[in-house]
Amino acid sequence: xxxxxxxxxxxxxxxxxxxxxxxxxxxxxxxxxxxxxxxxxxxxxxxxxxxxxxxxxxxxxxxxxxxxxxxxxxxxxxxxxxxxxxxxxxxxxxxxxxxxxxxxxxxxxxxxxxxxxxxxxxxxxxxxxxxxxxxxxxxxxxxxxxxxxxxxxxxxxxxxxxxxxxxxxxxxxxxxxxxxxxxxxxxxxxxxxxxxxxxxxxxxxxxxxxxxxxxxxxxxxxxxxxxxxxxxxxxxxxxxxxxxxxxxxxxxxxxxxxxxxxxxxxxxxxxxxxxxxxxxxxxxxxxxxxxxxxxxxxxxxxxxxxxxxxxxxxxxxxxxxxxxxxxxxxxxxxxxxxxxxxxxxxxxxxxxxxxxxxxxxxxxxxxxxxxxxxxxxxxxxxxxxxxxxxxxxxxx
Length: 396
What we know:
Elements: E1 3-9, H1 16-27, E2 33-39, E3 55-58, H2 62-70, H3 73-82, H4 86-102, H5 106-112, E4 122-131, H6 134-143, E5 145-153, H7 157-160, H8 164-170, E6 176-179, H9 182-191, E7 199-201, H10 208-215, E8 228-233, H11 242-254, E9 259-264, H12 270-279, E10 286-290, H13 296-300, E11 304-307, H14 316-323, E12 328-331, H15 336-339, E13 347-349, H16 353-365, H17 367-379, H18 385-395
Parallel strand pairs: 1-2, 1-4, 2-3, 4-5, 5-6, 6-7, 8-9, 8-11, 9-10, 11-12, 12-13
Helix pairs in contact: 3-4, 4-5, 11-16, 16-17
């Protein structure tokens, strides 16, 4: 009999977490496991990339609780008053202030999800794949029945601002906690020491051969431009640092360097970045290309890859750029030193405009340095066989 496994994420937007999940699905033997993917919302550019043998469900209760979670508490109170739901109002106010007083969001989520029914399916394994995401971690912990429960932590919890008391309680219900880098694991255990014995590193699976194959798909990429191309991949968000890229390019262009910068990704900061590009006079040199299901031809055809992130758990796009042997400059977020040997196969810099500018300029003016870094990456091997074996070990 096939083992029943539940994965849960918020949506299938074009992002690193979702891409790593698809890579994991590609490695799972479909004849051995009955996989269900539960989404909070059925949306995102990767929806059509979910394998046909994976059963997709949408959390039917999320529409009811989403406004409560997303809107200010005052608005929730007004809504209960308008609808004369006084008992719910009193319960909500009590849970909200108790949570604030004790700095423990557990009381709040217990109130918000009180009427969410338990999942009637019994699973062998249930995985909160987008950790830490409060509502998903809570749902798997308390509303799902499974022999094993895994929380897969993809973010730097120092930057993600998790509520320690909430997660200390939630993680009691989990069999294992996976972190996507050694540094991310250490930070997580530092915050919640009680989980040290059940927490381990599980690197994202990198399908190098597929990335190389997809990078060769013909694609026009500013073919008439004769200067150097810099590429960055990531959601348009403050934590991804594209504002730093705009400022760095402004300095490079003012000094006469014939270079353009291309950002692949979409996000809430697009309008702000468009204004910033306009303010710096870079409309002909800095391009927001939007989300791309296949960003690899852009990376392959660029001269330098730059990761400007202010924080990451494990930067999947950096690993993908490595597969394509691009000279790399990256900021020193969590896990960067586990992927890059500074000065050997890339440069790691502080997350500051000045430091990015210095190293990028060095690569622009020195082709031999670009070739050296790319050559050293060519000799590197990205091996995720061990991670594949971990999958089978925990699933069995």
